[in-house]
Amino acid sequence: MIKEVRVLQLIDSLHAGGAERVAVNMANALSSQIERSYLCATREEGLLKESISKEVSYLFLNKQRTMDLKAVRKLGDWVEKEKINVIHAHSSSFFIATIIKVFKGNVKVIWHDHYGNSEFLEQRKFKMLKLCSKYFSYILSVNKPLESWAKLKLKIKAVMYLPNFAVKNENKGINTLKGENNKRIICLANLRPQKDHFTLIEAFGDIVKQHSDWTLHCVGKDFNDDYSKDVKDKIVEFNLNENIFLYGSLPDTTHVLRQCSIGLLSSKSEGLPIALLEYGLSELSVIVTKVGECATVVKEGHNGLLVDAETPKELTKALLTYIEDEDLRKEHALRYREHIEEHYSEKAQIQTILKIYKASIQQG
């Protein structure tokens, strides 16, 4: 255990998204590696609260607006009382972390960029981020384009690409998926436009015409917005109510994944999706679009299948490849699990993060 290192993972919510899972996974993993590990949700709690280790000190701010002085004061007092010396701010929580840095100058801020629309960086608004970046000690980027973008656009040169890592969620299994065993496909993704469920639904519609006993299971937060409505309307339009099932967020992710054979993401844009790594840990064969770091992780033809984004016909072809060749499906699934365990493990990434924390503190 490394003494005199007390690190706070700062995240906006505890909904079951990628950045949120990274923050919780890091807080849990660090609890046995450093003097004290902390986690703070600034705006909302959520399903992931159940996954926080008892060894992690937790705070909920209930922040109501961008500049919530009561929340800032509460966080600042906690940082000072607990003698936290590193704030690891995830995604948009960089703003409140910067405020704490300004008033508590001895704390170091590391910003973790999980930006999911890395295929469309030219559209990114970053005026406030650029202003705050001069207070950061390090920036961690979840893919190479984000790393290059930060070096070019922000006021800091200490930027590095840090792959995400996944851990098995060993919560008690409580959810049983519909459909037949060995004939389930899962898409672990919140209902958000970048995840492009429309391409997925269209592709799966063609699958059902040939393999009506296969089912698709979409697990992820439903925001009950226009996108959600359009997804549900699309399922009805393609007459797929008996083959596609929407579950919302579920707490027993690993248990759910183990009930499936194929893990799929049809995203228009990604960083490095935690779902893709979780598929590997659960020994699923994977199909994913060529966005973000997905191609690097999967290695086409060796660990899984890659398709271009927004190409339903390509996605259908890839699905048929796995559905009609069980031996290939199992071979890829086994290799992919071994690949994830070797290269995207908790152990390897935590050691890198610890070096960054120590270097930040030593900057003085």
Protein model, in words:
With 364 residues, this protein is an alpha/beta fold. It is 40% helix and 19% strand. The protein contains 13 helices and 13 strands. The protein has a seven-stranded parallel beta sheet with strand order 3-2-1-4-5-6-7, with helices on both faces. The chain has a six-stranded parallel beta sheet with strand order 10-9-8-11-12-13, sandwiched between helices. Helix 6 crosses helix 11 (312-323). The longest helix has 18 residues, at 326-343. The mean pLDDT is 94.
Spatial arrangement of strands, main beta sheet:
3-2-1-4-5-6-7
Mean pLDDT: 94
Range of helix content: 25-40%
Query: What oligomeric assembly is this protein in?
Result: single chain
Give the low-pLDDT segments.
none
Order of helices and strands: EHEEHEHEHEHEEHEHEHEHEHEHHH
Strand content: 15-25%
Cα radius of gyration in angstroms = 21 Å
The first-to-last residue Cα distance is: 22 Å
Tell the overall outline: elongated
Biggest β-sheet description? 7 strands, parallel
Structural class: alpha/beta
The beta-strand count equals 13
**What count of helical segments does DSSP give?**
13
Secondary structure elements and their pairing?
Blueprint: E1 2-11, H1 18-30, E2 34-41, E3 57-60, H2 69-82, E4 86-90, H3 94-103, E5 108-113, H4 127-133, E6 136-141, H5 144-153, E7 159-161, E8 184-188, H6 197-210, E9 215-219, H7 226-237, E10 244-248, H8 253-257, E11 262-265, H9 274-281, E12 285-289, H10 294-298, E13 305-307, H11 312-323, H12 326-343, H13 346-362
Parallel strand pairs: 1-2, 1-4, 2-3, 4-5, 5-6, 6-7, 8-9, 8-11, 9-10, 11-12, 12-13
Helix pairs in contact: 2-3, 6-11, 9-12
